[in-house]
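Please, structure for the following, as tokens.
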Amino acid sequence: MLEKNCPFDVTPYDQSGRVKTPNLTNINYTNQDFWSMKSRLVDIIREKFGDDFNDFVESSIAMMLIENWAFIADTLSFKIDQIANEIFIDTVSEVDNAFRLSLLVGFKPLPPISSRSMWSATINNVLNTDLVIPTPVVVDFNTEEGPKTIELFPADSNNQPMFDDDIIVNAGNFLNTSIIGLEGLTRTQTNTGNGQTNQSFQLLFGPVIWGSIRVKVDGTEWEEVDFFTDSQPRREFRIEYDPNYFAYVIFGNNTAGQIPSTGSEIQIIYRTGGGVAGNIVTGAVELQQNFIVPGFGFRVPVTFRNYTKGDFGYDGDTIEDIKRKLPPYLRSQNRVVAPDDFNTLVNQFATQFNGSIGKGTAVLRHYGCATNLIEVYVLAKTGQNFLEEANDELKSALKAELDQKKMLTNMICIKDGEVVEVDVTVDIVLDKFYRKFQDEFEVKVNRRLDRFFSLSNWDYGQTLKSIDITKMIADITEIKTVDVTLTTNDEANSGDTVFTKYYQIVRPNNVDINFVYE
């Protein structure tokens, strides 16, 4: 149930939290570099041969052979360390290897998600016939990351895109506001079935937006599944992504998943793009295009404008995201039983068009004698590191997902978490010699603050202490003193410490950095 239907006269009993496990440090055996190897070999030769061999002149043939051996030993040692590091999720450094480790345990990194915005279509004069606008309507615009594309589709009553329908300005109206804009570009790829088992096709363009792939075989649309689990051949296909989020469409073997018949036409429709660059502000794009109306001898100009901001864009999981998400996923085993299972599923939950959960926590309460009431407090992710109240569609989708995986004796209630916004003032004292380097110090301090307030480092009910920020900044050796002041809307909860309740989480609002030179 969602918040409006949740009982409130119950008492908190327990709360989920992050499982904190020590990370493995990089494996790097000491004394295995070139100079150490060379020095050790020289010592061994001196110890074994004594005065019988003393040709250690740098230009001698003996030293050349010793250095060749030290080089080979150094290279082998480095490679062994590198291979050892790449087989552990804590120490992996290559995204390809992180993907392999993910596939090994069934974890699927989240591909890019397109931003979503609502648009209006306006005509100057009312028509006595419907104006039918073929979709998608392509809107090109520029961002700091380069040119981007938004495609416009009609929206249903839940503001979900209807990809196979046209945008219509009905007769007698001059405005249609049920239009959804999705960042990215639609592409179509046609292949031919060869009748072989496990046939697969690589999509030619990428990165491919999550959930955008549709497959039609001889005009009949097939269903995307995670696994071919049925013992009967069904019209199903699977999707796999490579580390660059290029996609592969995979068919079955007629025992698990049907094989497209030989010579069949396989049409794959998909969208490429995605990312935060599509998160435009309200009214950022306005353009006019002309469309033909049957029976008119001229084109009708239509003005398109985004009347909401673009939101929910995501660039896809990075290697750091994979390293953070995979261990809790492996512990939860795709279920919600223990408190940590709720934390894992909720904090990794995302939808195609309604955003993703930025931070969630589960609270266990006693509720009668027959069931446990579990309140799940959630906040949606907006941008890279910010939180906002989740929309009803996102909460409903999360509720449906939890209901599929929960125990029968659990009753789940979705509630809105609260953000405690904190203004952070940092006063830094430096020697006057460093005045000319103020920009560099400001960059260093901002980087530390960004890491400190990263969403992955914060949970509900966590206390913010100014001393923790001071310690983090004070490791910059040139800084003499640091003074941090925390300010919230509650004067009693400001100063050196900011406390939060179990359904509240700290987020920075305004951050002011002041430099004083002595």
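The mean pLDDT is 89. The chain has five domains: 3-17+317-416, 34-87, 116-184+276-306, 186-272, 420-517.
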